[in-house]
Write a structure and sequence with these properties.
The chain has about 170 residues and is of the alpha+beta class. Helices cover about 25% and strands about 35% of the residues.
Length: about 170
Amino acid sequence: LAGCSPATPVSRDEACASASPTPTSSRRELSEAEAAQNKAGLSALATAATAAPGLTISLVRSLDQRWLVTRLSGGVTQRVQLDRDGTTVLETTRGGVDGASARVAEQLRVQIDAAIATAQTAVTGALLSAEAHSRDGSAVWEVTIDNGSCRCSGNPEVVVLVDAANGQRIH
């Protein structure tokens, strides 16, 4: 479907009624629910940082509306599960760090909250996740936002890629 590719935010009408290969961006005000979810995601990052030392490499909202924050520190991965508001730690688990995660973490110059802010300047909607990945040998933040577009394809999610070295949106 034209317009539903990552980092190409479009309105529902543009995606569903037009086959234009270069859709335009549509900005709107956040709903109260979206603003609350975004606030909860940022709260989850702050709460997890106090519960587990290290570098955050992912934030994911689960289907049951809880948050999962993954942090790396000294060869240990800590996964912190938080409530829907992001203010209460429900569980913390520890494990080893896989090589791919360690390599990506070494390349991170831009923190997760800055990557989220960059993505939210491009796409209006509710934060679903932000995860560090390797793309063509470079670290990127993949920020997923539910902006309500592309519902005709069954996928209202927009992925915005942010360069983890300089914080710029990747087009």
